[in-house]
Amino acid sequence: MTKNIPLSFEFFPPKTEDGINKLRETRAQLAKFNPEFFSVTFGAGGSTRDRTMETVLEIQQEGFDAAPHISCISSSKAEILELLQAYQAKGIKRLVTLRGDVPSGEVSAGDFRYALELVEFIRANTGDHFHIEVAAYPEFHPEARSPAADLLNLKRKVDAGANSAITQYFYNADAYYRFIDQCATANINVPIVPGIMPIYNITQLARFSSVCGAEIPRWLKMRLEEYGDDMVSLRAFGVDVVSELCDNLQQSGVPSLHFYTLNQAGTIEKIIENISN
Ligand code: FAD
If 137 and its partner were Cys, which of 24, 53, 112, 141 is the partner (CB 3.0–4.6 Å)? Predict the structure, then answer.
């Protein structure tokens, strides 16, 4: 088995002093895996703009590569340009570049409709400064007109200058492998890194999955529901399932693994230890 596969970890920007301190501890725990980078999400419509930047700069000051997410929906070109220039001036070199979801009740969608336009805008205004990551969907984005249209969207983002993609999470490894084959056929020749969601809580996971279109397979959902309030057993089972998924992906030769941490380290540490032994 391959050891020391490259890893990256995604955080959300904390709101409170407690959250900031907890994230510092989480980072310290995950730092031992020598990640390629830590990324920090960006709230819909720029709602976390300042907190995303503060978190990213703190990570950078600790000596790690930090990648802010940047989403374009509801933003003007002037706002995005200002943000790009600020990151460029701070020496940030990698961006996770997204459309974002339209906040409920939002009237104006801003100057951008799709992530493709943001990738084009970043390349037009900052040249090759940033390594651009985009989102990819092995089980297809919920708004995609068809699987072929979703694949074409990824191809356009890559042709416009994206350097790599991170996938939405999935528990069906076959969906990822088929997606990778289709990308190869479509001449999408950039790394497509699996996004890994640890299992912490069935209610939360079901909520995320209903929004983003990631399937929780029936066997997995029923097993998780059976644990009821027994969170200790549920998490132990979740560690087994996700470790097996990561092991399978690692053995198939994926370029790296990107973990959606939800700002927690313990479960992920167990998964990484399982796949490193
Ligand atoms: P796009 O690539 O623009 O695609 C959106 C949809 O539009 C797809 O269905 C696509 O097929 C369709 N489409 C594209 N072009 C056209 C066209 N011309 N005509 C018709 N349909 C079209 N969200 C956040 O708000 N903040 C974050 O920090 C964040 N981080 C994420 C990180 C990762 C790794 C992933 C996978 C997702 C993340 N998201 C985040 C969620 C993301 O913003 C949503 O999934 C969003 O709905 C789509 O973003 P996108 O960049 O994939 O959009």
Answer: 141
> Tens digits of per-residue pLDDT, 18-34?
999 999 999 999 999 99
Kindly report the pTM of this predicted structure. Answer: 0.97
Spatial contact of 259 and 8, defined as CB atoms under 8 Å apart: yes
Nearest-CA residue for atom 42 of ligand 1: 100
Go through the domains of the chain in sequence order and give each one's CATH number: 2-276 (3.20.20.220)
Provide the pLDDT for residue 104. 67
Distance CA 22, CA 79 (A): 30
Q: Which atom of ligand 1 is nearest to the CA of 140?
A: 9
**CA-to-CA distance for 267 and 269, rounded, in angstroms?**
5
Compute the distance from residue 135 Cα to the ligand 1 centre, in Å: 6
How many whole angstroms separate alpha carbon 27 and alpha carbon 19? 12
Tell me which residues have their CB closer than 6 angstroms to ligand 1: 41-42, 44, 69, 71, 96, 98-101, 114-116, 135, 141, 143-145, 149-150, 153, 166, 168, 195, 212
153, 188, 259, 260: which to mutate for ligand 1, most atoms within 8 A of CB? 153
Q: How far apart are CA 251 and CA 117, in angstroms?
A: 35
Scanning 39-114, the segments in alpha helix (DSSP H) are 49-61, 77-89
- Residue 217 token pair: 């397979």
Predicted local confidence at residue 145, as pLDDT: 97
Whether 10 sits among the annotated catalytic residues: the reply is: yes
Q: State the Cα–Cα distance between residues 189 and 186, nearest whole angstrom.
A: 9
